Amino acid sequence: MERLLPSDPSLIGGHRLAGRLGAGGMGVVYLARSPLGAWCALKVIRAEYADDQDFRARFRREADLASRLTGRWTVPVVAADAEARSPWLATAYVPGPSLAETVALHGPWPEAQLRGLGTALAEALEGVHTAGLVHRDVKPANVLLAADGPRLIDFGIARAVGATALTADGSVVGSPGYLSPEQARGHTVGPPSDVFSLGCVLAHTATGRPPFGTGGAAAVLYRTVHQEPDLDGVPENLDRTIRRCLAKEPERRPGTRELRDIFGEFASEGWLPEGLPALVATRAARVLDLPTPEPTAVTGPPAALSPVAPPSPTRRRLLVAGAALGVTAAAGAGAWWEWGRADASANTGSVRRSRHVVTLLGSPDDPFFTDHRRGALLAVEQHNKDARRTLDLVLRTADDRGTATGSAAAAARLAADPDVSVVIATGPNATVLAALTPCTKARLTLLVTRADAETFNNVNTTTALVLRPTLLLGPTAVLRYLNRVVKPARTVIVHDLATEAESLATVRVTTVHGKLDGETVVEEVAADEGFTGAARRIAARPRDAVLFGGVSPERAAACARALRNAGHQGARGATEHVLSAPFRAAGEDWWISTGYTDANADPRTKAFAAAFRARHGHPPGPWAAEAYDAVRFAAHGLAAVGDDGRSALRSELLRSPWQGITRRVSFDADSQFFLTGDGSGQFLFRVTGGAARFVARSDDIGKKT
């Protein structure tokens, strides 16, 4: 538990707050004492998110679902107010550790205690299913251990029986490693899905490791759907039962009532393994020893009028920036240069405009940075010349030195500068990922233009918004080209283990999620192996299509040469990551899916290309138009939130779709995942004559090509 911040309220709905149990992008969970003196966990949605009716509806649904549960192994709701300015939900507090923590600290559980755990959790799920719900996130972290038995918690993503697991094209709700095959595929889920998750939890508890291994989400999901679980170490008498729980077909899994009969009656005495009762008791004693909560100092109206009143807008921005790093940096820290100041300071006449700093985070040595900067500068200059504008923009750049360490340091400086309203991350995955933590701590919105790591799909735990499809969705433009134009009978997915995590994303999209219409087969190539053997096997059916799943330009070039030498004649595709000079020389007639357009050839960006040439004296390169859109998207949000730009911007940008010159920007209300709608957001290029040439937008493929 952490101390309350000075900006935290003292009282919410009559509950006196004592400390913070956790915080995320959406809200905070407090330890609180109820009006009757009982300890409870009180979950509060941040005020700026609560202003969004979609988020409020989601919270209302969670409170309603949780209030239906009355079983002894679930945590009861003791109070809630979904209509408060900052909606909140209070449940009975379980002071014990999580199952995940105890297994990590103390190792696997013996058979007798496993049976007791299985009985209690099966009974908890029986109550969930009787209430017409599916939990959808049964995992060790959501099982808390109390002296008298376990408690199943967190119904934040529970849904009525029959709801699907998918939230957006290929995005899966739940925790990889514990969700069922049907949930991983995005199919409709029912009670058997929770039984599969229970089997995963019991296997993990019995062996000390997840049954489908660790690693990236793509790899774990692939194993869940296609491979058998690793149950080495599960007690012999429980092996068959857990294997049945982990059956790929839902109809082959046992029901919760049958599981209770198999595991036997729950005995509260001795249900915890040796050493854990003392740990549970110690955790419980810490709460009993807590003093009466003291009031915190919060600016704003008195508690009686607004018990969850946040600090004033200006004060909130300073609190967030200062609390994150303990300092308030001088304006411009970490900047190389600044554009727009002369125009932005010219607030003449009766119009008073606020001033917002937009900062590009990247390296001047990055070959794509100059076009990012020039596209962004054009957007800033055009914005500041508009007489109808309500705010002025200033453009800065911050050098991340092209390294993760440099990116983290630069992001920390920007986070400490209260003048910075938004950061646009221009670099690749390795550097941009390092900027997430500093920006999230300061609640500074980070717009991602180029990076496409799957990690960015967990945006509801950060302040990042990715403005493009990520690797999770695969090479959408190439997939569309194969489905709509080539229509091959079979496509071979080259799974390059040299970049296994990234390659698995393409494998999963094409096999688990079935994004290719024809038959698919996977050809694995080891990291220390060449492509000659694989190319010969593929060329035995020379008209088969090939999709290279890796991201290494050198490996892709080697694959292209091997296929050409073997006589392969079918369509071949890959992602933008492979577009180096060696690949362009070797990959003649390859089809490439990118996250950027060619503004000179794309018919929808002609006006931008002309303005760019007029301003900078040369045509726009890759990512110039996307940077232009990122600045305009940020300005659109800043105009709506006014002076409180930093803390409220991200919530505002999530509210409604926005159309740029490169793509439509829209996010799913629940997952906050970037939506591609009808496939827009990627672009198709073809390698000809040693260059990658624009062919079409993804949503136009099949219409013109």
Automatic annotation (TrEMBL):
ATP binds at K43. It comes from the Bacteria. InterPro entries: Kinase-like_dom_sf (IPR011009), Leu-bd (IPR028081), Peripla_BP_I (IPR028082), Prot_kinase_dom (IPR000719), Protein_kinase_ATP_BS (IPR017441), Ser/Thr_kinase_AS (IPR008271). The keyword Signal applies. Pfam families: Peripla_BP_6, Pkinase. Residues 15-272 form the Protein kinase domain. GO terms for molecular function: protein serine/threonine kinase activity. PROSITE patterns: PROTEIN_KINASE_ATP, PROTEIN_KINASE_DOM, PROTEIN_KINASE_ST. Its EC number is 2.7.11.1. Keywords: ATP-binding, Kinase, Nucleotide-binding, Signal, Transferase. CDD domains: STKc_PknB_like (cd14014). The keyword Acetylation does not apply. Belongs to the leucine-binding protein family. This is ABC-type branched-subunit amino acid transport system substrate-binding protein. The lineage of its organism: Bacteria, Bacillati, Actinomycetota, Actinomycetes, Kitasatosporales.
